Amino acid sequence: MPALRADLALTETYTYRSAPPLSCPMSAYAGAADPIVTPERLAQWREQTCAEFSCRLFDGRHFYLNRARDTLLADVISRLFRCV
Hints:
Blueprint: H1 2-13, E1 26-31, H2 39-43, E2 53-58, H3 65-83
Parallel strand pairs: 1-2
């Protein structure tokens, strides 16, 4: 429950502030059937970096992490190793 409360608090209080794009690679992840984070909204993260950008969808909705944890972690670890 604390993680869910923190997620909701962030959603309710966050205000986007425009800034220059980052110069580091960025990856964005979401559930393919998420009604809130659609593939189009996820792809908008591309605007936040001038470096490599990747976007990956997993089976499921907003809580796709429950099923895709191992695959997601493997992808993140692989991308981090490419950066070092």
